[in-house]
């Protein structure tokens, strides 16, 4: 388990049901958030992508914002508002933003994209993308497939 996964698991504990545990986790942002930070024309395009993916997640029942936690449990996917230090360490979770039962999620795909990763989620007849670290995207998708099996 990576340090981010462990930190998110610990931070999520107060918001989970008794006996519920985190199988996989990642720090995510709506796809396009990093590009939006670039400014200029690229930033405008990134802002549009980010907004579109955030709205797609919301339509599927998940609230996703920049640098939030995405956690997979045996029964649902949860998003968390994380407390992240200036050095990038996760210090805890402030609140649970949303959750969607696994039976409402059709599929999850994790891919490497440049130096990062992209998690694509299809839930409640909508598809949206989240950016994260490359290894986390693949690990999350594999854990989802195992949980649904």
Can you give a write-up of this model?
The protein is of the alpha+beta class and 149 residues long. 34% of the residues lie in helices and 39% in strands. It has a seven-stranded antiparallel sheet. It is globular and about 50 Å long. The mean pLDDT is 89.
For the largest sheet, list the strands in their spatial order.
Answer: 4-3-2-1-7-6-5
Oligomeric assembly? single chain
Total DSSP helices:
4
The major β-sheet equals: 7 strands, antiparallel
Report the uncertain regions. Answer: none
Helix/sheet category: alpha+beta
Topology:
Blueprint: H1 3-12, E1 24-30, H2 33-36, H3 40-60, E2 68-72, E3 76-84, E4 90-101, E5 105-113, E6 116-123, E7 126-133, H4 134-148
Antiparallel strand pairs: 1-2, 1-7, 2-3, 3-4, 5-6, 6-7
Briefly summarize what is shown.
This protein is an alpha+beta fold and 149 residues long. Helices cover 34% and strands 39% of the residues.
Looking at this protein, list some descriptive labels.
globular, alpha+beta, 149 residues, 7-stranded antiparallel sheet
């Amino acid at each position: 388990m990576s340090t981010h996964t462990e930190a998110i698991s610990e931070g999520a504990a107060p918001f989970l049901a008794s006996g519920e545990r985190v199988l996989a986790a990642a720090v995510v942002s709506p796809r396009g958030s990093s590009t939006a930070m670039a400014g200029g024309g690229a930033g405008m395009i990134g802002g549009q992508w980010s907004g579109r993916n955030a709205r797609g997640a919301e339509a599927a029942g998940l609230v996703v914002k920049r640098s939030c936690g995405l956690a997979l449990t045996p029964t649902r996917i949860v998003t968390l508002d994380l407390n992240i230090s200036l050095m990038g360490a996760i210090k805890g979770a402030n609140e649970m933003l949303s959750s969607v039962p696994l039976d409402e999620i059709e599929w999850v795909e994790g891919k490497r994209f440049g130096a990062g990763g992209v998690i694509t989620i299809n839930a409640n007849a909508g598809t949206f993308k989240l950016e994260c670290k490359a290894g986390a995207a693949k690990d999350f998708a594999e854990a989802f497939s195992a949980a649904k099996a």
